Backbone:
């Protein structure tokens, strides 16, 4: 004769509190789970007993959340956000069923999850990079260093803000991260620009590198972008940008990039490698290995024709340079090509890296791809 399990009555809100105290608090992503738990506690499910909640209730919650407009962003809640909330709820039910005895099954298990999005592909343009750096520098030099490290090292925001001087070796060019999001330590190589930025911020023997808290930095970042009128750019997009630039160097393989960025899954890393089309133009036209090495230094850049008062100028959006006015488009094009060759040659001799060519709108007659050779 089977013994029927006695259910301990517990409201979902109480169970969420207990999960937060005993499980979430031990996780690296505690703060994110804390926010998700608070969202669940405000739902109509919260006051129901765990054993009385059905898969129909969970499905109704899913649909309601997908139609909710976020007060912070003004946009509907994303499918990924709802997936994470359902995953937390499912983990809670599995634990409660086995260890707490507050339910006999998991109603989340068979409910359809929202389809995962393909992930963000937002790239930072050279113009945006210069404007943001200038604005952050004017606001607080520390903010500009954080911005530079994000682009140069692919470190996450939390990893940058938690850096300590005793873990930074500017002579070796290494920043040691004792604990990362993946739960493991990682040594991050620092580029010349990253080392220079850290030196200029006043290197010390010990203590935190930055004084900003997570909330303080997020607030400064939002205010800066709002003041510049830059939309749809998250700080985490800088990590995407940094990893994409590492691939665009053409000197690192996937495993080496993963060692720098800390990605454990190569599938996850793949979504960060959206190469700009302008970066590939010179590679498609190269036939010999020696020519390829040479062409890598002299890549074409998009430029915009500006005609005013009978004079024509060419403006490189990605470079701080404006050619002298010319009498015709042909003359302006020749001057722009010559100037681009001179700029790239000087950068190559000085060992400097120019900003990568940015994206342009296809079929826009104002724009043309300038060949330096």
Residues:
């Amino acid at each position: 004769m089977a013994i029927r399990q006695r259910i301990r009555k517990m409201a979902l809100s109480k169970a969420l509190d207990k999960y937060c105290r005993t499980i979430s608090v031990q996780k690296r992503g505690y703060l994110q789970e804390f926010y998700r738990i608070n969202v669940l506690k405000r739902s109509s499910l919260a006051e129901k007993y765990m054993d009385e909640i059905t898969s129909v209730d969970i499905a109704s919650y899913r649909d309601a959340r997908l139609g909710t407009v976020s007060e912070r962003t003004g946009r509907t809640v994303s499918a990924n956000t709802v997936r994470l909330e359902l995953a937390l709820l499912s983990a809670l039910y599995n634990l409660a069923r086995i260890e707490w005895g507050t339910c006999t099954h998991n109603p989340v298990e068979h409910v359809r999850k929202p389809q995962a999005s393909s992930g963000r592909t937002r790239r930072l343009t050279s113009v945006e990079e210069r404007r943001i750096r200038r604005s952050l520098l004017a606001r607080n030099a520390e903010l500009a260093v954080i911005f530079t490290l994000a682009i140069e090292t692919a470190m996450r925001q939390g990893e940058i803000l938690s850096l300590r001087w005793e873990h930074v070796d500017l002579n070796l060019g290494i920043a040691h991260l004792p604990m990362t999001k993946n739960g493991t330590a990682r040594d991050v190589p620092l580029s010349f620009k990253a080392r220079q930025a850290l030196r200029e911020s006043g290197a010390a023997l010990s203590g935190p590198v930055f004084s900003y808290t997570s909330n303080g930095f997020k607030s400064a970042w939002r205010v800066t972008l709002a003041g510049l009128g830059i939309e749809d750019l998250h700080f985490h997009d800088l990590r995407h940008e940094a990893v994409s630039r590492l691939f665009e160097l053409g000197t690192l393989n996937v495993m080496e990039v993963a060692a720098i960025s800390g990605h454990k899954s190569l599938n996850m890393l793949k979504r960060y490698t959206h190469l700009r089309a302008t970066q590939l133009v010179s590679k498609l036209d190269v036939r010999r290995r020696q020519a390829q090495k040479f062409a890598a230094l002299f890549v074409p850049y998009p430029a915009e024709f500006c005609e005013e008062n009978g004079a024509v100028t060419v403006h490189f959006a990605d470079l701080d340079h404006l050619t002298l006015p010319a009498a015709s488009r042909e003359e302006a094009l020749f001057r722009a090509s010559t100037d681009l060759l001179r700029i790239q040659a000087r950068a190559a001799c000085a060992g400097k890296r120019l900003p990568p060519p940015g994206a342009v709108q296809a079929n826009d007659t104002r724009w043309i791809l300038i060949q330096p050779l």
